[in-house]
Amino acid sequence: QRGLLLKQGTMIDATLVAAQAAPPSMSAGAGAKSTVDDDADWTRTNGRSHFGYKAHVAMDQGSGLIRRATLTPASVSESEAADALIGGDEAAVYADRAYEQKERRRRLKAMGIKDRIMHRRNKHQRHLPRWQQRRNALIAPVRATIEHLFGIMKRSYDYRCVRYFSLERNALQLELLCI
Predict the structure, then answer these.
(1) Beta bridge partners of 60
(2) Which of 15, 26, 60, 173 could serve as 150's disulfide partner, Cβ 3.0–4.6 Å?
(3) Three-class SS of residue 128?
């Protein structure tokens, strides 16, 4: 009523967006670049290869407003873009397993932000301890609302494929789409 915005938390995630340019042919070899769009790149998820970009988005938990968004080539990991999405004024950060880093958890604690990043298993820990499984189960439904945002972007705004042939122009398209 007084125009104040309560920032409960920020939910962070990324989605793949196909490039406008056709992917390079398989005969060009692994990691080949497009002759039309030098910025688009390859990534592999769930056993499938994708050529294009990755849209990294930070959404406010309470209002559903997009706070920050960046676009990177698809080869850039989600964790590399995460720090640019954290504003520092939120109460908590919600993210999936791809964003887990010990240093990030320490920084969030030092800034007074609650760490709601899901835990993942590693080579020394084949199964998560019961408390981490429970914590992940509590975080997952809250964090899942950002997936609805990506569904709206792809279905309603047809953001399955970028419109232009450069990272700079496509990043501007993402910004305008978020507005």
Answers:
(1) 10
(2) 15
(3) coil
Q: What is residue 3's DSSP assignment?
A: S
The answer to whether the CB of 163 falls within 8 A of the CB of 173 is yes
How many CA atoms within 13 Å lie on the side-chain side of 48?
Answer: 4
Contact 147, 170 (CB under 8 A): no
Maximal C-alpha separation, the chain: 62
Task: For residue 161, give the 3-state DSSP assignment.
Answer: strand
